[in-house]
Please model this.
Amino acid sequence: MLKNAVNGLENLLMNEIPAGSVILVNGAEGTLKSGLVFSMLSNHIKVTGEHGLYVSLEQTKASHQQNMDSLGIKKVDGLHIFDYQDMREEWIDRELDFVKMTEEVIDFYKNKYGNLKVFALDSLNALYSLSDDVHLRNKMYHFFLSLREEGLTTFLIMESPQSRLPGQFTEWHQSERFLADGTIELGRVEGNGVVKRYIQILKMRSTRHAMEKHQIVIDENGLNILGPIY
Amino acid sequence: MNRSIDKIPELCESHEDYCKKFIERIIKTNREVFILSSLLEKQMCGYDLIKDIFTKCDVFLSQGTVYPILYTLEDEGLLMAEYSKGDMRSKKYSLTPKGREIAEKDIEEFTNALLQISFLIKR
Model:
């Protein structure tokens, strides 16, 4: 159902993303990463009746919700948003293990609702900047494994500089690319004085997909993916 | 088993540890009841709740297991949250009338269940 979760996405994904896939959603600021993922989760849950969890490390639940409302993306009841704002404020003197806490939060919602099937983390960059752990890489490897084993289809949002060349990743991003089952890139292209946003699926294991960059636009009804950009 | 007198303090200690483990397991699998019970006394933020349960029961409930409970109980209308005056950093939770009713009922059922278990196990 995820392949039909955003209008036009079915032209990029020929078959369904397997349950339990871990997908990186990568792009510069303002390329609609959060909007795309939230929209996919919300629309998927609306059709399937499953539950989903969106963990925001950057924004509060209220500000994320406000942001999504402004994009015309509606939240459904089965989609739960969790933020770390209160914890960060109240435990300011303590070092918090955000990977472990995120696993606990997932467990809580899984036990509470039973059919928690989709999960998003916004963003990996924030998780890294909040963690001093020297074993973080190892932890992330096990985190990816546990998400897959639990059959939770996962979207990990990663912000990368706009200037980087397509297909190039930093050292951190490089290891995540190998671990992930899929990579969706969002970006901007400029030509003739016009800036267009695009979506490109770089990799999606066990799924036939288009390789071209497709234009992504936003209107009062949310996100729409149009035809190839070139 | 041959038990010498000098082993008794050690045995008592291990018995205590064993007992503590059971208590810890019971509290961790019934976090919601303990959170509601603490909130019956006064309004608290997540930090205060974790500290309160640790002080009373010597059990540390991790942040990732307490805050989601607070948020869902708030969504379900059992708790209300407000920032305390002069401190916009900590959100204090208190029971709504509906929450108080459910908390009292849950605590009673929980203590009854523990009593029944102790009777069953002594048979």
Remarks:
- Chain A touches chain B through 18 residues (CB under 8 Å).
- The two ends of chain A are 28 Å apart (CA to CA).
- Chain A has a mean pLDDT of 90.
